[in-house]
DNA sequence: TAGATTGTTAATCGATTAACAATC
DNA sequence: TAGATTGTTAATCGATTAACAATC
């Protein structure tokens, strides 16, 4: 029974399923039951079946799930076969590290360009991605619609940059600055990587063991 | 009414409160009610009061909360005044970026050292943090107990490295590799930054807008 | 066929929100 | 004092788990 509104809890488990299924594929496992999958991932079989049932019927009674097929289905749900386009704003240490190491294409993203204000990086090419001056950003977006902008810029300019990009039609942000961004428009999506928040929860758990 | 077991949902909101209160402090705001705080953070006043009540009574009827005081209390709960010690394993692009830019001390962490296998970085000092050879790790840990190890290493060696460190007594991991780490020992804490999972949830939301 | 396992409905559990007496 | 706002109890909502008929 396909559901209309999928809860955030379910969505956040999808990438984990996808990861686990990719691993099972690589290990040559052909079929798996919700029970075995649950054991490997430390979640209940019930939850797995409930989660999947939000999107369709991918299994077979008495058999379980075909690993490769299920992986493809979840990948499809996540949009990995959509060839999303992405640019990066801010090629400092972190931006550079992501361009260099993060396998964007494995998540279905093509990195079209990066932008920065520093003359030291403008004009360089990092892992096949050209770095342009910030002044060229508006013009670039006219010809190259992008689905996601990665924000690896200083906090101080984060909201202004985001607002500017929203005005230019950008609807998706992968935000690495440790602030909550906001938008007037309702259909703009922010996904945050809050390093400090993450470390502080670890700090809490250590301090209150 | 202090609670025994605090739910993960509550814990994950604490850093956000801390961040918002720090901001309010900087803006010179002296007092705030749960209602106003909720408006700024887009959560209900009820939830805020429930959350705080897990840890104690920090407000005053008819007045609200003293911002600076509340910030200090939450910081204390999070352990920012515990002076936790931390080392990093893996000084590649990402590790280097974190050492260079991430304000560990603001979260109450002292970075004692970093370790890598590459001769290119061994012996260097990044932002006052010395980089040692991996072979010196065991010896180092004998003299320098650490609370948290940052894992910015390739996936392929992540679980083995973690297991080794757990045997040496390490109880906290800030894991940047995109795999689920596990431990036999029950009191070992893992906090994961799964870049790919994060981007995939954004991909989902864009694809299913 | 018999055993296994699904998708779904019902039951339970936990988290969020509402309400309100207490009190600054 | 009167108004405001807390901390907490009760009500609601949503998410997880259990149960089971359907069926491969």
Automatic annotation (TrEMBL), chains A, B:
Name the Gene Ontology molecular function terms of this record. DNA binding; DNA-binding transcription factor activity
The record ties this protein, via Gene3D superfamilies, to: NAD(P)-binding Rossmann-like Domain, Winged helix-like DNA-binding domain superfamily/Winged helix DNA-binding domain
Tell me the keywords, alphabetical order.
Answer: Cytoplasm, DNA-binding, NAD, Repressor, Transcription, Transcription regulation
Q: Does the keyword Metal-binding apply?
A: no
Cellular compartments per GO CC: cytoplasm
Where it sits in the cell: the answer is: Cytoplasm
UniProt: NAD(+) binding residues: 90-95
Q: What does this protein do?
A: Modulates transcription in response to changes in cellular NADH/NAD(+) redox state.
Q: How does it assemble?
A: Homodimer.
Protein name from the UniProt record: Redox-sensing transcriptional repressor Rex
Gene source species:
Dysosmobacter welbionis
| Taxonomic lineage of the native organism | Bacteria, Bacillati, Bacillota, Clostridia, Eubacteriales
- Record gene name: rex
């Amino acid at each position: 029974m396909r559901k209309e509104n999928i809860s955030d809890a379910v969505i956040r488990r999808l990438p984990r399923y996808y990861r686990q299924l990719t691993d099972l594929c690589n290990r040559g496992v052909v079929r798996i039951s919700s029970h075995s999958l649950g054991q490997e991932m430390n979640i209940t079989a019930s939850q797995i079946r409930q989660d999947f049932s939000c999107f369709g019927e991918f299994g077979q009674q008495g058999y379980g799930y075909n690993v490769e097929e299920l992986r493809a289905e979840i990948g499809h749900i996540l949009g990995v076969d959509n060839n999303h386009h992405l640019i990066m704003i801010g090629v400092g240490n972190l931006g550079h590290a992501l361009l260099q190491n993060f396998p964007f294409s494995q998540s279905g993203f093509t990195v079209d360009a990066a932008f920065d204000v520093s003359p030291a990086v403008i004009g360089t090419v990092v892992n096949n991605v050209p770095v342009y001056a910030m002044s060229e950003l508006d013009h670039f977006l006219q010809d190259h619609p992008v689905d996601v902008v990665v924000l690896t810029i200083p906090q101080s300019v984060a909201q202004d940059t985001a607002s500017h990009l929203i005005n230019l039609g950008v609807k998706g942000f992968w935000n690495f600055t440790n602030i909550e961004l906001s938008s007037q428009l309702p259909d703009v999506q922010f996904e945050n990587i809050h390093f400090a928040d993450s470390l502080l929860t670890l700090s809490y758990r250590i301090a209150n063991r």
